[in-house]
């Protein structure tokens, strides 16, 4: 019952966090943890009240997990090949392929470490399981947090709409960036029809080393071509990353002075990280995502996940240790008590 009580507590904390309606990784972490502890609590009850049902449940899970991992590995490898074919060779485009290969290699690595024998082999295998388990749990929490943030209500009358740049191709707006601009135009038209003052659009992006002009300039040109009046477009052309997008756009947004929260438009996979960055750099902003081509999504989400891990390396090391200690404690609570 202790595990079920802890799951209920996590759900209460999740509800409190959800009520704040802001981008936060803790929402996904709390919800996933509550579901896991609830499942373990049910298993604990089965072990004590119906051992045969508990053994059957464990057997089904033990069979299902390798099958699911195999299917996921094949999917990721196939997606990785598609990414290389359509997007070219780069580390970011290799992520889904590497993840799929890693899933296939993982069981053989464990068998090799255990075959090594002795305490050293066992501890090495346990360490690999801990790191892989934590990485998988953190990724699921990241996905759930992204979905929860994307489901929050969108302001219908923002005072400004900031569009984050994503790179030009030969000085022109590519499909990925066009999706962001089209989503911003749709939000602008909806706000204009709702009455009141039409929001200002802030296309944000500087000039990269391989670009003939700033992204903000090309984005502004696209907006004008789609019928947005020029006086409602205020490009930001100095930023080189998401953090600078938000920081440099803030001065433009603050200068507008109209009521209502700012709206930030990016791609769907980038919503959570942009929302986390916006909390300090563009307070009150709500970030929304434009649809991305389906084949691009797995690698894009993996890239965002890696970026978030890298941003808080020390914190995740501490969480991984807590994760390992929790697994040992839960195992003892279910099978040794």
UniProtKB/TrEMBL annotation:
The keyword Transmembrane applies. One of its GO terms (biological process) is peptidoglycan metabolic process. Pfam families: DUF218 (PF02698). GO terms for cellular component: plasma membrane. The chain crosses the membrane at residues 29-47, 59-82, 94-116, 123-152, 315-336. Residues 160-306 form the DUF218 domain. Keywords: Membrane, Transmembrane, Transmembrane helix. InterPro entries: Cell_Envelope_Assoc (IPR051599), DUF218 (IPR003848), Rossmann-like_a/b/a_fold (IPR014729). This is DUF218 domain-containing protein. It comes from Microbacterium testaceum.
């Amino acid at each position: 019952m202790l595990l079920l009580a802890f799951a209920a507590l996590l759900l209460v904390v999740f509800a409190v966090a959800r009520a704040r309606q802001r981008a936060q990784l803790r929402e996904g972490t709390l919800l996933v943890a509550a579901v896991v502890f609830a499942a373990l609590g049910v298993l604990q009850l089965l072990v004590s009240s119906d051992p045969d049902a508990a053994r059957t449940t464990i057997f089904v899970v033990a069979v299902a997990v390798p099958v699911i991992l195999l299917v996921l590995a094949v999917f990721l490898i196939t997606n990785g090949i598609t990414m290389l074919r359509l997007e070219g060779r780069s580390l970011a485009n290799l992520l889904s392929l590497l993840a799929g290969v890693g899933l296939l290699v993982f069981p053989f690595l464990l068998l090799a470490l255990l075959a090594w024998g002795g305490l050293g082999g066992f501890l090495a295998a346990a360490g690999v399981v801990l790191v892989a388990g934590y990485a998988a749990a953190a990724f699921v929490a990241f996905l759930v947090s992204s979905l929860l943030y994307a489901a929050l209500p969108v302001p219908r009358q923002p005072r400004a709409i900031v569009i984050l740049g994503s790179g030009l191709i030969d000085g022109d707006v590519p499909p990925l960036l066009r999706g962001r601009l089209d989503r911003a135009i749709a939000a602008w038209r909806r706000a204009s029809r709702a009455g009141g003052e039409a929001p200002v659009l802030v296309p944000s992006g500087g000039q990269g080393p391989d670009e003939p002009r700033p992204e903000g300039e090309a984005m502004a040109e696209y907006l004008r071509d789609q019928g947005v009046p020029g006086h409602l477009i205020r490009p930001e052309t100095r930023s080189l990353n998401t953090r600078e997008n938000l920081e440099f756009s803030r001065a433009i947004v603050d200068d507008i002075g109209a009521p209502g929260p700012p709206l930030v438009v990016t791609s769907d996979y980038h919503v959570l990280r942009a929302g986390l960055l916006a909390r300090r750099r563009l307070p009150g902003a709500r970030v929304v995502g434009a649809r991305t081509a389906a084949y691009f999504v797995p690698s894009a989400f993996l890239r965002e996940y890696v970026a978030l891990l890298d941003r808080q390396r020390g914190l995740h090391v501490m969480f991984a240790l807590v994760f390992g200690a929790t697994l040992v404690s839960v195992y003892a609570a279910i099978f040794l008590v």
